[in-house]
Design goal:
98 residues, 4% helix, mainly beta, Tumour Suppressor Smad4
Length: 98
């Protein structure tokens, strides 16, 4: 599954967890380096059995699905057509497999 964030493409492999954030130890750090309202460890995405899950991992500015803030540490299943956003303005475009 591919994601488009801040003009960069990220790939999420089935069965893997992708942590989004500015922490230098993360593979996504370069995407979020200059986005200061994204936490160092903001959210996790997991793609398994054709389903995509998001968990806010204690971010300061929240993770939102269709403008509803997710509670921290609660996994949420995303569905096609839902909008995912980090903090107030970082859209995550999900490219669902056909």
């Amino acid at each position: 599954m591919d994601l488009l964030v801040c003009g960069r493409r990220l790939t999420l492999e089935p069965g893997r967890v992708l942590t989004l954030g500015r922490d230098e130890a993360l593979s996504t750090e370069s995407v979020f380096r200059s986005v200061l309202n994204v936490s160092r460890r903001h959210a996790e995405l997991r793609y398994e059995d054709g389903r995509l899950y998001v968990t806010d991992i204690g971010s300061s500015n929240g993770t939102f699905v269709n403008d509803q803030r997710l509670p921290a540490s609660t996994e949420y299943e995303l569905r096609p057509g839902q909008a995912l956003r980090l903090a107030s303005d970082v859209a995550v475009e999900i490219r669902w497999p056909s």
